[in-house]
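User: Structure with adenosine-5'-monophosphate-propyl ester, tokens only please.
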Amino acid sequence: MVDEKSMAGDVYFPAPEVIESAHIKSFEEVHAAATADLAGFWGKIAAENFEWYQPWETVLDDSNAPFYKWFVGAKVNIIHNALDRHMHTAARNKAALIFEGEPGDGRVYTYQQLNHEVCKFASVLRSLGVRKGDRVTIYMGRIPELMIALLACAKIGAMHSVVYGGFSTEALHGRIEDSESKVLITADGAWLRGNIIPLKQIANEALERAGAVQSVVCIKRTGQDVEMVPGRDHWYHDLMALPIADPNAPTEVMDAEDPLFILYTSGTTGKPKAILHTHGGYMVGTATTLKWVFDIKDKDIWWCAADPGWITGHSYIVYSPLVLGATSFMYEGAPTHPYPDRWWSLIAKYGITILYTAPTAIRGLMRFGESWPSRHDLSSLRLLGTVGEPINPEAWKWYHRVIGREQCPIMDTWWQTETGNFMITPLPCVPLKPGSATRGFPGVQVDVVDEDGVPAAANEEGYLVIKTPWPAMLRTIFGDPDRYVQQYWSRFEEQGWYLPGDSAKKDEDGYIWVIGRIDDVIKVSGYRLGTAEIESALVSHEAVAEAAVIGVPDELKGNIIKAYCILRQGFDGSDKLEKELRAHVGHEMGPIAKPATVEFVDNLPKTRSGKIMRRVLKARALGQDEGDLSTLAD
Ligand code: PRX
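Assistant:
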């Protein structure tokens, strides 16, 4: 229990009227109830707020931990809750999605209209042979059809695997192959800063190397000519005009524990891993966290400015707002196009009430000064949020003062692809400290511990751990259950704790301050990238024999990538080659993964077993102590 009067540091207390109108008025009370009876807590929420075709026998089955199961025996489909059930309520004619494209075009979908499109596309997918349990890769920009595609997959019980539109050929190819997708859904292009990202062209290149894809569905967005392969490729609008596109397509009845989707994310070593989420627990967890943390009300216009290609978009653009019957806003393009006030103009134009974005975006917009936001009426905003990386107190305060008029609490939400939903987060009723995600969501037991699992002293750095299961947790790594156990549950196996891979501190009030990754994951502008994938892109260039990459702190992007390359004989480390290697990584992985600098070296620090010691490279790059070098080979 926090004694609010004596809290340490810079504290922002919620206004009484914010607490008064919030869904949850006392964090302590709800957290205590959840802690006392976790299964009872979630069982009650699940029963009261969602429709199930058939109820569960057991809320939480932990008999085969860490392969936890939730709502065991229940029948459900998240689409029944996100769309079908709203056809019988006032939500039917409410806006589900308000969209503005980068060129300025706009569209609104009511729940009825969205359902109509989803039903039609679901039956199109069925006609292409997609069945329950199949995988479908989706590679698109931030447009309504992306949402429709995800929802249509879920409706027929197929698992979608979204690949972020900023990724490129090799990243797409690897993810298509690993998932053994039958169908790829893409678009001719995506608008970004007035330019076209040639999605279909990249997809064609990726498919030259990928075998299993039988059909490609292409949405017309940017309108330039693209190469369509006869027999394999179809235009979305052609398929949607056929009689097979049935607006009354039935929703597949699923087990609560049946897979909903996979989403690739970078891990400690090797290839990206496919995180698997399920229909029942994910639905309950994402919708409840959104409702409580962002206090979603009927009249809100919710804007999660993330990309649907990442977990934030899956959970908080696509699924949970629809399950809650809320209105979401989606914007296609860059925040600074054509001017640095595009976002602020959108808030005023659409009357956005809640904005949820990443610290990197806030820092980027902050650079342009206050005059850009100040020319727009931002008074519709009542809550703000951030996610993806630690927010520096300076950016937090700017966001609070300039965008939030000192009246909007900021929900700094810590979570991961794996967790499915917010884990460490304030609620509107919780006192805030700039830079801290505060405490665990009700029922989530988080702690900071040392090597042996002993709780770290106040303000001491340690491992962040999660001590209890939660409904939206990942169930496994698709196709690699051993790695699931190894990666997340082996470090504190005895205690049965989940290891997120972050380091953190806990202050004297029990507030958590996340510091950053302890593994080989680099967060660039909030995007999660794995060193292994970038290194293998570098090594795929003929000049490179070996490569290592590290993240170096950067004021704007959080981290930037620094690469070290050992060249093959006959190649010289010139500026020209550095440029070429950066472009090569951009082509293979995507622009986001391009190293900021490439240094040519004769050798790399390695352990005796040949593992590159990136920690040593990083310490050298930052001029810090190199630490324990006893395992260094040479
Ligand atoms: O390091 C943490 C950081 O992002 C990681 C998870 O990345 P990803 O799976 O891509 O999901 C991002 C969006 C949910 C975490 O391990 N992270 C996320 N949110 C925060 C954060 N670090 C500090 N503060 C946050 N609010």
